[in-house]
Each structure stands twice: as C-alpha cells, then as structure tokens.
Amino acid sequence: MPDRRAVGEQWLALFDWPLLFTTLTLALLGVVVIYSATFANEGDTMRGLYFKQLEWNFYGLVVLSIMSFVDYRVVERPAYVIYVVTIILLIAVLVAGKVISGSKRWLLVGGINFQPSEMMKLVLIITLTKHFGSVRDSAGEVGFQRLVIPGLLTLVPAVLIAKQPDLGTAVVLVAIFFAMAFVNGIKTKTLLAIMVGALVLVPVMWTHMKEYQKNRVLALVNPSVDPLGTGYHTIQSKIAIGSGGLMGKGLFEGTQSKLNFLPEKHTDFIFAVFAEEVGFVGVFLLLLLYLGLVLRMMDLVLKAKDRTGALMAAGVSAMFGFHFLYNISMTIGLTPIVGIPLPLLSYGGSSLLTNYAAIGLLISIRMRRFRHD
C-alpha cells in the first residue's frame, strides 16, 4: 500500500503553483479595483460588490480545488449529458430569464442569479474534446465533413446566447471551436473555406442584429458622431485610460469612475478604471500577468500527455486569450462594445466560477502529465 505522505508530497510537487499564483494575483487585484470603482457610490447597491466578489473568489477556490484533484478524463465522460442540460438552461433563460440592463441572461435559482451562458463556455470545451477525440481521417487531419457535428454543437448554444442578446459570449464559443479544431488538425483548405463562408454570412448576421448592436459597430468608426449615445462608452473609456498617464492618478483616486462618467465600470470597463488609477506602468505589469497566464495555459497544449488534455488546454487558452484581448481592445476603441468581461478582474460570480473551474481543469491535466494512473 503506497505511503500517504509520499503520495501527498508527489501531488504537491506536480501542482501547477505558477498558474495558481498568477490566478490569485489577478483575482485579488480584481477585488481591489472593484472596490475602487464602487466605494464612492454612497447609498448605492454597488458599494458592497467588492465583498461579494471576495466571496465568489472563495467559492471559486473550492471549485478549483475539486477540479484539480478530479481526473480530467473523468470530467469528459458525461460531456454530452452536461451539454444537453446546459442547452435546456439556455432555453429556460429565453423563456423565463431575468432581464438586467436590457439583456435576458440570468436565471434566478434559490435567490441566486447565475448565467448559464458562462457555464456553456467550459461545457463546450469538454464536449468538443470528447467529440474530437474520436474523429480524425487517415491523413491525421480533420476535413470539413468531420466538422459538421462539432460545428452544430457550437452553433446551437451560440444562437441561443446571441438571442439573449449576448453577442460577446456567442463569439467566444466560436473562437473556442476554431482553436480546438486547429489543435485537432483541421486542414488548411477547410479553415480557409470556413473563413470565406463566415465573410459571406456577415450581411445576413447584420440583418439579424439588434439596432443598438448595429449602432455600436457604426460608433466604432466615429464615436463622436453620437457622443451622448452609442459613442459614449468608448469616449469615456478612452478619456479614463488616457488621463492615467505614466504613473496614474493613484489608487482610489480615479475621477471617471468616482463621478460616474464611466459606464459598466465594475464589469466590462474595469480595465479603464485600473488604467486611470495606475497609469501606463501599472497597465504594463497587468498585461505581463495576463500574458504569463495565457502562455502557461498554451504551454500545456504542447506538454499534455494525451490529446484529451491538449484539446482541453487549447479550449481554455482560447477562452481566456480571447476574453483578455477583446476586452482591452474594446475599452480602447479598437473593437465594437459587447458584453465580454476581463477574466478574473471583472465583477461577476458566474464568470469567476467558470474561470476557476477552467483553471482547475488545467491544473488537473498538468498534475497527471507524469503519472500513469
């Protein structure tokens, strides 16, 4: 019978401490920035959001611990069942979801609001891993015919989420699909054909977009055309980021958020709050943290001991990388404004728990890299 102490020491040695440290650093920084963005709202319900975020971080650590010590291959087995359950939840959102800020994204269960769309990101990663694990042609590459089913697995939740409307999360699902298909060996000509097809569908997508979504795209070109309407978010965000200068105005001293000029300051535009207070130097360090996080995830794509682990790592890397790049480009006016939070920093229990669960999954993969269980 193996010595329990020796087994425990082995697990500790294999645990991905750099990934955990980077995760906790970003998460705790998020609590501080959320406090800075909301503490001046005297009498407002937002004043206690930093404490709620701290609570969600505690729950997230519990989820991360569980996911870390559960074999990732076990998680893959009930993938299709979990996928169907999550699809049912997304349909329930459209039928009886709670409307907040004009979007119907939340379900109220036991007095707690949660977003099934956030959970769908990780569920899709696990489901596509299970499917891709059994499909490769004789040349070792994935052709178009082998992408029909995973494409449908992605398209169904993407359409349901886009109808909430939550175009940002729907696009994240598509990014996950492409990243995992690429790692699984998608043919170059197949990838080009899909890209051309997507471009052809752009006019069709445009006709199905909400009016405010179209206005946000148009405001990207020239936000000053409607400075108090569709261009307001971009203008105020760029003012906040630009006014931070080299060293920033100082922690808790940002004026754009304190005076409520900056909208969605604790969620989508938390980067602008951070940039105003810590300046270029602080932003540079934050970008290094995110770069280190994503590179650590991508490293696992190459070092996982099996294709299941590599595919899961690719999906999680795509999820975090896309969120990180799009959110920041959105706040500086390079991409249209959609509901994409900054991972681990933005306020939100559903998003935070999903992030922690995904990171726990990666730790599970790395811990079993040298094991033969």
Compute the number of structural domains. Answer: 1
Which sequence of strands runs across the widest sheet? 1-2-3
Query: How many β-strand runs?
Result: 3
Q: How is the biggest beta sheet arranged?
A: 3 strands, antiparallel
Low-pLDDT runs of 5+ residues are none
The end-to-end span amounts to 15 Å
User: Helix and strand string, N-terminal first?
Assistant: HHHHHEEEHHHHHHHHHH
- Shape estimate: globular
Report strand %: under 5%
Helix content: 55-70%
Number of helices: 15
Radius of gyration: 21 Å
Quick check: average pLDDT? Answer: 84
Structural class: mainly alpha
Please specify the SSE layout and strand pairing.
Blueprint lengths: L3 H11 L2 H22 L10 H21 L2 H5 L2 H18 L1 E3 L2 E7 L2 E3 L1 H17 L15 H15 L4 H17 L4 H21 L2 H11 L10 H12 L11 H4 L11 H34 L3 H25 L17 H19 L6
Antiparallel strand pairs: 1-2, 2-3
Helix pairs in contact: 2-3, 2-13, 3-15, 5-6, 5-7, 6-7, 6-8, 6-14, 6-15, 7-8, 8-14, 11-13, 13-14, 14-15
Main traits of this protein?
mainly alpha; 373 residues; globular; 3 strands; 68% helix
Characterise the protein shown here.
- The protein is mainly alpha-helical.
- It has one domain.
- The chain contains 15 helices and three strands.
- Strands 1-2-3 form a three-stranded antiparallel β-sheet, with helices on one face.
- Helix 5 (79-96) runs antiparallel to helix 6.
